[in-house]
Specification:
heterotrimer, A mainly alpha (304), B alpha/beta (247), C mainly alpha (354), A: 304 residues, mainly alpha, two-stranded antiparallel ribbon, 11 helices, globular, B: 247 residues, alpha/beta
């Protein structure tokens, strides 16, 4: 039972991280049909933004030394600017392309960001001490919970709540939801395409920034591919949850995390190293059995 | 008010419109009749900025519309109801109705206008807070027409409002359009496959087939329907002289 | 369509001649380093032509083909590396592989057949998915291959390398296989299956109405394409003498897709041009990164600029020439008797998307 509770909280915290990243990917897919591979590199970029650019082996904190709210704000600004730039320079010019071409374009953006980071920061992984006091463990009965896990879960709840309010209650949010569902029709009604898309990139940038800070305080090491695995799992989460649905993306994030944490805990020893294969296998299965995902995008449409 | 000259549109290799000229004057109701695939929807999409023309001019009050983004064309006062309804299924009826006023940031007349429109379509009021995806086809058609009018457009384009609807609902839809015309002096461009209803409803009719205008004229002169039928089915099928010039 | 057989295969002969001439020229004139570059480029050509057999004909983008390359390369490594090393490090291999060392061609054939067999099973499962869903599934496949080969320690040596593979692949062997790949691709493209597949790509509804089973023809292309990519994989292993699982992941997927897109996804000529263009481009930047002496001082581009330039180049092609440098057309002679090459030989555009 204790073991189960511990595993459950592990899954919840991992799921929060996946859900955050999945929301960022889902936002863009909903509006642009863009599966943004560069999303992982935006996460990486957010983490690198904390230190002074140099190719030396030792990392010197710069933004990372500021108070926590300034750190979040500054990293968010950096990542949002990069996200908007990727739209402005690349994605805007391939709007009419099919999803596979968009995916390839994002591949190119990803490749460029990774190598820009390599150019300015060098290829060696660097250890960074961000908010290490979050590793403090809370004792609750027999269960020990690292503070970081609680912070991760809370941060996700706050962001998801904020995002929900924004989308449900504000004029821009309602326009975004309309655009996500039928971009062309929304524009016929006066919704500004580039405004909505820019907003989607900006919001996904904010989510990436927070994800990168949480990820970095967890792993403690910078490397120029650090965001890639997170992006892969988040991407899978959006497929599992139902591409284009934000509720689906969040649900998918938790579903994938629970699958992978519980597989890790309960798979036989000799199969445990292949856990990720099972998770990716689930995705293929999902595509075959329920291609619209756990939460289908379109509400049921009755016909006369 | 709306002037279209020699408009040509093609998708990939196929030509959808091959030199169409058409105009709509202030407070007129103009109808484009034609069989499936004639290019009616393409015509509207081109006016609304949804597809780029290969050739030709489109002006609205003398302003050139070619190359203008759809959202800016909407701001000039052209509102479009495309074929197939296109409600935002996960948004509520209310949100659907208000989306244009949100987008244009003009919320002065919202309560007055929505009251007026709900007077025509009382069923929408009953469903005010439900997701639009749950509405019946007829209700969705009412919603998209009401939605298009919320921003007080000067020209409304409706693409096949009767497609796939029961005759009774079609009546409701046209009664509403007629009422709004009287009340607001609304200018309209409507696509339909069949001309029967249009002979009563519209001021002028264009017959479109194979991407070309085959016939045009005031409704009064076409009442017997004979000329329309011939143009519609192409019984005397030599390309009209004006069109071979246009090529 | 009345045409003489010679006219029909003329584009193929032309393409083979150009590839052979360029490769032979650089090999004979250039030094050792040029030979290595040519060999690697020819292996990549085999792989990229292999990928284009599937993508070019079906219009479905696959992110998983480097997984087939990985499978075949490891199979070749199992077959050819030193038995003593195998018995020490790869104790999970079946005895016939552990105890023997097989000749080059057996390794090539075995590896490619294994890749094709995996493609048959996997393709049968996923190819009824449409467009982007199929692409996502191929991506998941790549991730699974990477995960399995990274962790199956007793068979793949995990994330460490398998070493001691005889390096027998020289430019001429590379050339031979590249030419075989081109011939296979050309043959498939103009076969009944290939024509049917391109019909399903251009108009799935009409194709289905005419009774073409999309899944079956797609599967045929998928298996053949995995086989050719597999050939490339086995060559790569026996060219480098070492295989490591991370050689066959996102980076190589990106580079090969970049080649295909830059050249033009819809044609075999596109694959060839793409490999050539990217190789020249990369070599040029590698040269600049190494440093150019101008008078007294040496100017060198910083590390990473070659990759950045490749990414930027690819984005530019996607934006300005979405059909690639060749516009996805096959090579053809200047029009001699006024008759253009029949439509069957020139790829039509990929569908512009929904």
């Amino acid at each position: 039972m204790i073991n189960f509770a511990q595993t459950f909280i592990d899954a919840l915290s991992l799921g929060s991280l996946y859900a955050l990243a999945a929301l960022g990917i889902g936002l863009l897919f909903g509006i642009l049909r863009l599966i943004n591979f560069a999303y992982g590199d935006l996460i990486t970029l957010g983490a690198y933004a904390l230190i002074i650019p140099s190719t030396e082996a030792v990392a010197t904190l710069f933004i990372g030394n500021w108070p926590w709210f300034l750190v979040i704000a500054a990293v968010a600004v950096v990542v949002v600017v990069a996200a908007l730039a990727s739209d402005f320079l690349v994605f805007r010019h391939v709007r009419r392309a099919d999803p596979s071409t968009l995916m390839i374009a994002s591949f190119a953006v990803s490749f460029v960001i990774q190598n820009v980071i390599l150019m300015f920061y060098g290829s060696r992984p660097k250890s960074v001490d961000l908010w290490s006091n979050l590793n403090y463990q809370l004792q609750m009965g027999e269960v020990r919970i690292p503070l970081l896990q609680i912070v991760t879960i809370l941060a996700t709840l706050v962001l998801m709540g904020g995002l929900t309010l924004l989308l449900k209650r504000t004029s821009l949010g309602i326009q975004m939801r309309a655009a996500a569902e039928d971009f062309r029709m929304a524009r016929y009604l006066g919704v500004r395409g580039n405004l909505v898309i820019g907003l989607a990139f900006a919001l996904s940038g904010v989510l990436a920034a927070v994800a990168s800070l949480l990820l970095l305080s967890q792993v403690g090491t910078l490397s120029q591919t650090m965001g890639v695995p997170l992006m892969l799992f988040a991407f899978i989460a959006t497929v599992v949850g139902g591409m284009g649905s934000l509720v689906g993306a969040a649900t998918g994030g938790f579903a994938v995390a629970f699958a992978s944490v519980f597989l890790q805990a309960y798979l036989p020893d000799e199969l445990r190293p292949f856990r990720d294969s099972f998770v990716f296998g689930i995705v293929i299965l999902m595509l075959l059995v329920r291609p619209s995902g756990l939460i289908p995008t379109k509400a049921l449409v009755e016909r006369v | 008010m709306l002037e279209i000259q020699d408009l040509a549109v093609s998708y990939g290799g196929t030509t959808a419109l091959a030199g169409v000229s058409l105009n709509v004057r202030e407070s007129e109701a103009v109808c484009v009749v034609g069989p499936n695939g004639a290019g009616k929807s393409t015509l509207m999409a081109a006016v609304a900025g949804g597809v780029p023309p290969r050739r030709g001019r489109i002006t609205f009050d003398g302003k050139d519309l070619v190359g203008v983004a759809p959202e800016n064309i909407a701001r000039l006062g052209i509102s479009m109801v495309p074929e197939g309804r296109h409600v935002f299924g996960t948004l509520t009826v209310e949100e659907n109705l208000l989306i244009g006023t949100y987008a244009m940031g003009d919320r002065r007349h919202v309560s007055k206008d929505s009251e007026l429109l709900l007077g025509y379509f009382p069923r929408l009021k009953e469903r005010w807070r439900q997701p639009a995806g749950r509405l019946s086809g007829g209700e969705q058609q009412m919603l998209v027409i009401a939605r298009a009018l919320m921003t007080r457009p000067r020209l409304v384009m409706v693409d096949e409002p009767s497609l796939g609807l029961a005759p009774k609902i079609v009546d409701t839809v046209y009664d509403a359009l007629l009422g709004l015309r009287r009340e607001r002096g609304l200018t309209m461009l409507i696509n339909e496959q069949s001309s029967d209803r249009m002979l009563k409803f519209s001021d002028r009719i264009y017959v479109l087939r194979n991407g070309r205008i085959q016939l045009e004229g005031p409704t009064g002169e076409l009442q017997d329907g004979e000329a329309i039928t011939r143009a519609y089915f192409g019984f005397d099928d030599h390309p009209a002289p004006a069109l071979s010039e246009a090529m | 369509m009345t045409e003489t057989p010679i006219r029909r295969i003329l584009p193929l002969l032309l393409l083979l001649a150009v590839v052979a001439a360029v490769a032979a020229l650089v090999t004979l004139v250039g030094g050792d380093e040029a030979q290595l570059t040519v060999t690697e480029a020819l292996i990549r050509l085999t792989v990229v032509v292999g990928i284009s057999i599937f993508i070019g004909n079906s219009g479905v983008v696959s992110f998983g083909h480097i997984g087939f390359m990985c499978i075949a390369a490891y199979a070749a490594a199992w077959a050819t590396c030193n038995p003593m090393w195998k018995q020490l490090m790869l104790t999970g291999l079946p005895m016939f592989l552990q105890e023997n060392q097989y000749p080059f061609l057996a390794a090539v054939g075995g590896g490619a057949v294994l890749a094709a067999a995996v493609a048959l099973v996997f393709g049968a499962v996923i190819l009824r998915l449409s467009g982007i869903a199929a692409s996502i599934a191929t991506f998941a496949f790549l991730a699974i291959v990477n995960n399995v080969y990274s962790n199956w320690d007793t068979v793949t040596a995990g994330v460490s390398s398998i070493i001691g593979i005889p390096t027998v692949v020289d430019p001429w062997i590379g050339l031979a296989f590249a030419l075989i790949a081109i011939v296979l691709a050309f043959w498939f493209k103009n076969s009944r299956m290939g024509l049917m597949l391109r019909a399903t790509r251009d108009d799935p509804v009409a194709a289905r109405a005419s009774g073409v089973s999309i899944v079956r023809v797609r599967l045929a292309a998928f298996v053949l394409s995995a086989f050719v990519v597999g050939l490339g994989g086995t060559l790569y292993a026996q060219f480098l003498g070492v295989v490591t699982v991370d050689m066959f992941y996102l980076q190589l997927t990106f580079v090969t897709l970049a080649m295909l897109i830059i050249g033009g996804m819809g044609s075999i000529t596109g694959a060839v041009v793409g490999v050539f263009a990217v190789t020249v481009f990369v070599e040029f930047f590698r040269y600049l990164e190494a440093g150019v002496t101008v008078g007294e001082s040496v100017f060198g581009l910083p590390e990473g600029s070659q990759e950045i330039a490749l990414g930027v180049g690819m984005a530019l092609i996607l934006i300005f020439m979405p059909q690639g440098l060749t516009r996805s057309k096959e090579l053809k002679l200047p029009r001699s008797k006024g008759r253009p090459v029949p439509a069957a030989l020139t790829a039509r555009e990929l569908p512009a998307g929904s």
